Structure to design on (919 residues):
């Protein structure tokens, strides 16, 4: 029943098509007769002197144009209106027949209308369902003959094959007789394509049945026949559209799955897949399709993943061959070198913008191929798969081919980026498998011998890929594609970053840290080559600023490679000093070349030196440092880089770029402070640099250094204004004040820690820990008046007063308790009374100093200290002192308070009309 329905539907469709053509021919004859009648009437009106003949012609033209308009709802009227346009475009370019091509240059009014529901249901769905019905009809016909036992297998297969051929022939006949407008409007539901597709599916089923069910043909014959059918389907897609090409692609991908043999032949498998992929890409290039080649990339990638993951062991060369075919096809055929970004008419050109680079046409083709190649290349060297031999060569070849394709054209830059990712991730995997990381991860020590990569192999792979990325970057810079500056910048970055990453990993995991000749040679050669590229770019005479970004990236890359070379050939103090000199050399090279990046390389050099110091603060190792204060390896290891940075900052003091100038000044200041601090640490701890908590004396030296540095920054800011000196000095002052609160008064206070003060009074720990910092803060506050904000100056003055109060109080306790002033010893009555006297005297002294300096903040500190003394007398002395000492305490307090009151009255009276007091 189904077969009869399918056959009837096919006959009805064919009859409707032929009847439609007869109707169109009849309408054409009627129009021609109407034109002849209008011409005859025009001649008669001329002979009889009737109205203007032009008006008659105009009316005839209007009638001629109105008649097709009246029949605009039918397909044949639209066919006549578009026939000439479609024919011209067909002769001009075959691409206009594809569904991705541009619409006709002169679209008809009916074609511009929104497609109606009737058109969708009546013009498309019957075709699709009818094609499916025909394909199923052929299947059910064969099934019925099998179930009924009517025909032999040979006859059944022959009839099915004839049915498939008949469907294809019918599709070709209808295609040749199709009206252009019908083909244009219903291009996704073309009857010829549907019929041909049904025939291809039928033939595919016949061959598979002959092989898999009846065994009439062998594996080789079945494979060849299925391959011919699938490739022929791809070829016919040039006539029937992209959907038909998808059918051929699907058949090609299923052919190896349906036809299998006991002995797997990966070269045959991937050779066929590569040929099918290439045929699909060639058809897509002629019709400018993007969906089918993207699916082809995905299909080839899935076959590769399945084979590599499931085959034990797998052969890498066949998969590599198919990947190279795919990379070459995408790079050279489609989208290929000729693909250009299409700019809309009237729109401003987007050449050179990042949007154009990352939104090219045919994006899916390029990026899908790049993803497939990168993933499979990384899977080659994964320890999770089993290969006949470890495919390091295949990995390098695929990554190199992908990088080469990415350097050919801007639209393929995704291949270059994914190649860079694959190179870095793959090199990490190779070096990790070399066994060097077994001390970090013990599980790596038990790797099977067949997947352990020799260190020399991993090193050579990293070096080869590094050289290739530099080479491809140089080729891109040499070509310098017009209007694609972002492409040039990206490849300059890849040429600079990828070799640094690869050689750094290779050296760290496979190199000899004492002296490594090969890594050093390759690193130095690469660094000098990148510098030569920067020089070459600078001499090309490009537009102003055009080579700044690429040249800057290459210069930074050269510095990185030279640093790797120094690590490979030197060690310890020599490496640190060599990096410092190398960084400074880039700044001094500004006298020879005006490259904007040169000072930034000096900054990078300072960062590298800081990283080395953080890794090994002793520079030469704890065992080789020694205990001699100052004159040890720390002095050149910290001091020479500091001097070089100071010299660089001074040398570039007139540099127009304020950012790098300020950054160099900040780094120079940091290194100077770091040098002094580390020397103090070494001297105070007898040559031991560890993480132990510093003593009060060591912390006091740091505080004094911060105070002095803040004053130096203030002076430098006055001579050469700079935000680094201004805000850096204030930041140091704030940090030192916070250290006073955290360390001097609480954490390292001898009253809480029990640290001995020393046997000599006054010249003891209290002098360096409290009195000298107090004097330093007082001097800094006086120097900062008028130069820094008022709150900052007041905070400095208060910090000095607090330290002076702490020194006076602890000195009283030392007088009564000795050099051990710990809290567990309690208080004596004389000691308690002495505190009151000293605090009052100190308060008076602060009041005098504040009045002399006209500093309101110091006078406020004096008032606070006096208030504390009053509270102590009333709350402590009244209960703890007895007899004469209690009376003397109150008498002294009263006398002092009266004197202070008189003093304040005098000050306020003399300054009443002189305006506000200073801080």
């Amino acid at each position: 029943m189904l077969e009869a329905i399918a056959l009837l539907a096919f006959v009805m469709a064919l009859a409707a098509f032929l009847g439609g053509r007869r109707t169109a021919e009849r309408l054409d004859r009627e129009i021609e007769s109407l034109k002849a009648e209008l011409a005859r009437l025009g001649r008669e009106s001329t002979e009889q002197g009737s109205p203007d003949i032009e008006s008659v012609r105009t009316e005839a033209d209007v009638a001629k144009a109105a008649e097709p308009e009246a029949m605009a709802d039918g397909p044949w009227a639209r066919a006549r209106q578009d026939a000439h346009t479609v024919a011209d475009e067909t002769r001009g370019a075959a691409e206009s027949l594809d569904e991705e091509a541009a619409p006709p240059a002169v679209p008809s009014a009916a074609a511009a209308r929104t497609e109606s529901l009737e058109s969708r249901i009546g013009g498309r769905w019957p075709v699709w369902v009818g094609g499916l019905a025909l394909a199923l009809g052929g299947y059910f016909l064969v099934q019925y003959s099998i179930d009924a036992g009517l025909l032999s297998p040979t006859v059944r297969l022959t009839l099915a094959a004839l049915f498939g051929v008949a469907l294809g022939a019918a599709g070709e006949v209808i295609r040749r007789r199709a009206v252009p407008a019908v083909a244009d409007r219903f291009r996704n539901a073309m009857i010829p394509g549907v019929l041909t597709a049904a025939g291809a599916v039928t033939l595919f089923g016949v061959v598979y049945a002959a092989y898999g069910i009846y065994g009439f043909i062998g594996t080789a014959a079945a494979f060849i026949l299925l391959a011919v059918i699938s490739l022929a389907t791809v070829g016919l897609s040039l006539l029937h559209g992209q959907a038909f090409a998808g059918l051929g692609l699907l058949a090609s991908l299923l052919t190896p799955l349906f036809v299998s043999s006991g002995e797997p032949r990966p070269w045959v498998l991937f050779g066929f897949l590569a040929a099918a992929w290439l045929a699909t890409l060639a058809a897509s290039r002629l019709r400018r399709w993007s969906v089918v080649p993207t699916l082809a990339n995905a299909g080839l990638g899935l076959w590769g993943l399945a084979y590599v993951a499931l085959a034990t062991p797998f052969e890498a060369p066949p998969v590599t061959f198919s990947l190279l075919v795919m990379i070459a096809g995408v790079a050279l055929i489609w989208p290929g070198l000729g693909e250009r970004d299409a700019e809309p008419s009237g729109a401003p050109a987007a050449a050179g913008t990042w949007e154009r680079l990352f939104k090219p046409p045919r994006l899916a083709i390029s990026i899908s191929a790049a993803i497939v190649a990168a993933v499979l290349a990384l899977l080659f060297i994964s320890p999770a798969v089993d290969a006949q031999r470890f495919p390091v060569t295949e990995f390098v070849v695929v990554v190199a081919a992908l990088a080469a394709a990415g350097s050919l054209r801007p639209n393929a830059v995704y291949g270059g980026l994914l190649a860079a990712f694959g190179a870095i991730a793959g090199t990490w995997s190779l070096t990790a498998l070399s066994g060097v990381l077994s001390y970090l991860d013990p599980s790596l020590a038990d790797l099977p011998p067949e997947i352990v990569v020799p260190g020399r192999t991993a090193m050579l792979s990293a070096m080869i890929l590094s050289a290739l990325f530099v080479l491809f970057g140089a080729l891109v810079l040499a070509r310098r594609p017009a209007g694609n500056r972002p492409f040039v910048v990206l490849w300059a970055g890849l040429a600079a970053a990828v070799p640094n990453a690869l050689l750094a990993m290779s050296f760290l995991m496979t190199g000899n840290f004492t002296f490594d000749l090969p890594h050093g040679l390759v690193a130095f050669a690469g660094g000098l080559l990148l510098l030569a590229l920067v020089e070459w770019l600078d001499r090309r005479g490009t537009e102003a600023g055009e080579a700044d970004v690429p040249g800057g990236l290459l210069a930074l890359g050269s510095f990185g490679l030279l640093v790797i070379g120094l690590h490979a050939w030197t060690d310890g103090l020599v490496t640190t000093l060599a990096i410092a000199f190398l960084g400074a050399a880039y700044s001094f090279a500004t006298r020879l070349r005006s490259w904007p990046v040169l000072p930034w390389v000096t900054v990078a050099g300072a960062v590298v030196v800081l990283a080395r110091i953080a890794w090994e603060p002793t520079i030469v190792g704890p065992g080789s440092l020694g205990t001699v204060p100052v004159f040890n390896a720390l002095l050149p290891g910290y001091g020479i880089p500091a001097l070089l940075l100071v010299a660089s900052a001074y040398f570039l003091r007139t540099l127009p770029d304020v950012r790098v100038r300020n950054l160099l000044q900040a780094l120079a200041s940091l290194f100077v402070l770091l040098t002094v601090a580390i020397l103090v640490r070494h001297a105070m701890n007898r040559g031991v640099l560890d993480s132990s908590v510093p003593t009060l004396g060591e912390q006091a030296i740091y505080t004094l250094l911060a105070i002095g540095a803040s004053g130096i920054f203030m002076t430098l800011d006055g001579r050469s204004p700079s935000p680094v000196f201004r805000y850096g000095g204030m930041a140091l002052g704030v940090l030192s004040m916070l250290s006073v609160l955290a360390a001097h008064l609480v954490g390292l206070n001898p009253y809480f820690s029990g640290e001995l003060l020393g046997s000599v009074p006054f010249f003891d720990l209290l002098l360096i820990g409290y009195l000298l910092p107090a004097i330093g803060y007082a001097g800094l506050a006086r120097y900062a008046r008028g130069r820094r904000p008022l709150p900052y100056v007041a905070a400095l003055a208060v910090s000095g007063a607090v330290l002076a109060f702490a020194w006076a109080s602890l000195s009283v306790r030392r007088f009564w308790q000795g050099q051990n002033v710990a809290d567990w010893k309690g208080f004596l009555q004389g000691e308690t009374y002495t505190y009151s006297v000293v605090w009052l005297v100190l308060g008076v002294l602060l009041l005098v100093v504040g009045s002399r300096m006209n500093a309101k903040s110091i006078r406020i500190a004096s008032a606070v200290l006096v208030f504390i003394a009053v509270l102590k007398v009333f709350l402590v002395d009244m209960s703890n002192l007895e007899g004469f000492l209690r009376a003397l305490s109150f008498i002294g307090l009263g006398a002092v308070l009266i004197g202070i009151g008189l003093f304040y009255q005098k000050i306020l009276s003399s300054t009443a009309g002189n305006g506000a007091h200073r801080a």
About this structure: The two ends are 108 Å apart (CA to CA). The mean pLDDT is 76. Residues 404 and 472 are 7 Å apart (CA to CA).
